[in-house]
Amino acid sequence: MGSVVDELERILAPGQVDAGEVALRRYAVDQAPVIDFQLPLAVVFPESVADVQAVVRACAGTGVAIVARGAGTGVSGGAHATKNCIVLSLERMDRILALNPDDETAVVEPGVVNAVLNDAAAAHGLMYAPDPASFRTSTIGGNVATNAGGLRCAKYGVTRDSVLAVDVVLADGSLIHTGHQTFKGVAGYDLTGLFVGSEGTLGIVVGVTVRLKYLPRDVHTVAAFYPDFRQAAAGVLAVGRARVQPAIMELLDGGTLAQLDDIHGSDLTARGRSLLLIQTDGFGAAAEAQVVRDVLLAGGAAVTTEASEEAERLVELRRHSRGVEVDDEYRVGEDVAVPRSRLVDYVAALDAMASDHGVHLKVVAHAGDGNLHPTFWIDRTGGSVDAVALKRLHRVLDESITAALAMGGTITGEHGVGQYKLRWLGQEQPEPVREIQRRIKELFDPEGILNPGKAI
Amino acid sequence: MGSVVDELERILAPGQVDAGEVALRRYAVDQAPVIDFQLPLAVVFPESVADVQAVVRACAGTGVAIVARGAGTGVSGGAHATKNCIVLSLERMDRILALNPDDETAVVEPGVVNAVLNDAAAAHGLMYAPDPASFRTSTIGGNVATNAGGLRCAKYGVTRDSVLAVDVVLADGSLIHTGHQTFKGVAGYDLTGLFVGSEGTLGIVVGVTVRLKYLPRDVHTVAAFYPDFRQAAAGVLAVGRARVQPAIMELLDGGTLAQLDDIHGSDLTARGRSLLLIQTDGFGAAAEAQVVRDVLLAGGAAVTTEASEEAERLVELRRHSRGVEVDDEYRVGEDVAVPRSRLVDYVAALDAMASDHGVHLKVVAHAGDGNLHPTFWIDRTGGSVDAVALKRLHRVLDESITAALAMGGTITGEHGVGQYKLRWLGQEQPEPVREIQRRIKELFDPEGILNPGKAI
C-alpha cells in the first residue's frame, strides 16, 4: 500500500503529503469517541480542485480509501481514519472565491472557516447563518459534510438551507457542479441536497455556493432561571404559543450550569437549577423580547431585566459549554432530537435512566428545534478500564436513543451518523430505506473508496 | 392494454376508475402548453395508501405508466398524460391526519389543498409557508412534486424547506417513510429532498409531514410606482442593501399593469410603468416598512402612504395576475431565475428580444429571489396556425433561456421541468450531471413506469 503514498508524493508538491508519525496521529481521529482506532497511510493536503482530482484518481483501483476532513471538529467520527486509508485534509483550500453583496451569495473553497466567512460577510451587513458551536474553527466543507446545525437553526435553518450549489469530485476523479447560483432552482433532482450531509461518502465537496442572510439590526437576549428543568422546558412551549420565533433558544440543565460555574467561576447554580436563554433579532427584536419576558415571567421564571449584556455573556458561555472536553470512551455526548412537545418527557426519561444506572448526566438543548445534547459520563477509576461502569454507560446510551425514537425523534439532529452512531441507525431507518441508501452509495462510489463505513 | 384498466376496476371500488371520455380529456393535461397530446387509458382515484400500492402493483410489469396528479395546476406539463398511461389523481386523499400546534408540524395526505391546510393552521396562529399562486386549489402533493415556490419564498423558503418527511409508494408498490418528525435530522442521506421536486418520477408521495411557521402578528404593505422597470428593479437592490428581508417583493412591468387594468378596471397604468409591491411581516413589520418606504422614495418611486389597504389589494391582484389565461401554443409563461443583481440586465434583454422578434411580452417577478415569470405571446390570426409567428415565439423563448443561463440563472425557479422545459435542461446541466439523474431514476424505477419523459 506504500505505493499509493509514493504515487501521491510524486504527483503533488513537497509538503502536500505527510506520512510522519505526528501527522498520522493528529489526523487519525476527529472529536468523537473512537471505537476502532486506525492510523492513515498518509495525510494529504490538496491546494486545488485539480489536486483533489489527482488524489482520487491515484487511489481509485488500489483499494485505498479516502477520508475527507475539514477541521476535524466533528463529534460522530465521520472523519476518523479507517483501515488502509489516506486522510484528505481540505484545510489549505481556504479561499473565499466570491462574495456578492447584491446577490447575497458567496462561493467558497471547502476549507474556509465558518467564522472567517462570517467576518467577510459582516463587512456587507450579511451573515452565513449556520453556526455550529465549532464555528470559530470548523470549515464550510465540514459543515456541508455533516449538514451542520447550530444555535440559530430554528429561525435561520441548517446548513442545507444555506447551500445553493456544490462542486464535487466524484469517485472516478471527475468534477461536477450541482445546484444553482440563484436562491431558487428546481431543474432536475436535488443532487445538492444529496451531497449535503453525506459525510464524504458520495464525493469530495471542493466548492460551495452559499446564500447569505442579513445581519440582524438589533439583538435582544433574555435569560430566564427556573427552579427545575421541567418548568424551563414548559417555557419553550409558552414562547412558541406566543408565536414568537427566537433566533436562539437554548435550554441548560443544572448539571450544565454547575459545570459552567466550575470552569468560569460564575454563580449560575445559585440562581436556578435550569436556564433558558432566548435571543430575538431583527427589526422586531425588542418587541419580541418583551413578549418573551412576559410569557416566561408568567411561567415562574426569574427573568433578566431589559439590559441584555449579561444574558449575551451567558449565550457566549453556552457556546462553549462543551468546554475543553473531548468525548472518549468514558464520556459520550448525544445529539437526539424530539418533537418540541416531548422535550419535558424526554428529559424526565433521561434523568430516570441516568439515576437508575448510576451514570452522570448533563443536558443542553437547542430547544427551539427540539434538539438535545445530553452528555453521559462515568467516573474514571484511576486510569484502569472499569468494564462494569462502561457497560452501564452503554446501556444508558442505548436507552436514551430508544426513548427518543419512541417519542418520534431521531438519533442525530445535527452531528451526523459518522462512525459512532451507525450502531443505532437501524433502529431509526428500516432495512428498505437503508438499502436504498446503500444503492445510492454504490451508484456514486462503486469501489467503496469514499469514507467507507460511515454515514449509512 | 385494456387489461390493466379491467384489473384496476376489479381491485378498486366502483367510482375509483374512470375510463369515460369526459374524464380522460379533463385529466389528460395540466395547465402547461401541450406538445404531445395523449389520452390516458383511465383516470384512477385512490382513497388510501393501500389503493395507491394496489394500483402501482397492477401497473408494474405491464408497461402501463403512472402519471401522478394533484390538482392539475402545474404549468410545466409534469402531469400531462403520456402514451399508454393511467393518470393517478390523488385528490381524494385529502385528509389532514395530524396538526400538532406545540410541535408546529402537520401530517397530511397528498390531496390536501394548500389553502385548506393554511386555514386549519391559522386556527392555531400557524401557517404553511409555501404559497404558489395556485394555493387556493393546488395540493400539497403537487406542491411537493414540483418543489413549489410562491410569493413568500425569499423569507420563508420553498416547499423543500417546509417538508420534514414523506411517505412514498415506490415503483414496486412497497411503502417507505423518509425524513423525520423533528425540525432537524441528519440520519442518512437526504432521501426526502430527493423526492421533493422529482415530479412523480421516483415514487408516489402518499403522505407529507410539514413544518408550520408562525402567522405574522403584523403585516405592512408598500406599493411603489416607477416610471420604468429599470428603476423599479434598482429598488429591489436598494431594499436588499438596507438589509430588510420582506416577506413578499413582487415586481410588475407595464404590460402586466395594463392587463390588470383591463381585467379589473384599475388605473395602475396611469400611475406608473412599473410597480414594486413589498410586504413586511412580523413584530418588526412597521419599522421595516418605514425603511422600505424611505429607500424607495429616495430611488424615485411614488410610494403609498402608511395606510396599506390599497397596497394589500394590489398584492391580491398580483396573485391573480395570470388571470384566467392558460398557456397554449401561442402563449408561454417562463419561470427563469437570475442572481438578483442581474434583474435589470435580464429584463432589458427580454425587452430587446421581444421587440426584435415582434412578440408580446409581460413580466412579473418574485424579485426577492430573482425569479422571473415573463410571458410571451403572439396574436392569434383567426384560428389558423401562423407557422411563421410560432417560429418567432419559439426563437424568443429559446433566447430568453440562453440569456438567463448566461447570467448565472436557471431555466426553472419554481415550476419544474415537467415535459415542456425538457428541451432546455441540457443547456443548464451538462451530460454527466444528467446521467447521474438517469441512474438515480433507474435505481428507483427500473421499468420506467413512473411519469416517464418528465423532469430529467
UniProtKB/TrEMBL annotation, chains A, B:
Residues 36-215 form the FAD-binding PCMH-type domain. It is an enzyme of class 1 (oxidoreductase). Its cofactor is FAD. It comes from the Bacteria. Keywords: FAD, Flavoprotein, Oxidoreductase. One of its GO terms (molecular function) is (S)-2-hydroxy-acid oxidase activity. Its EC number is 1.1.3.15. The keyword tRNA-binding does not apply. This is Glycolate oxidase. The lineage of its organism: Bacteria, Bacillati, Actinomycetota, Actinomycetes, Micrococcales.
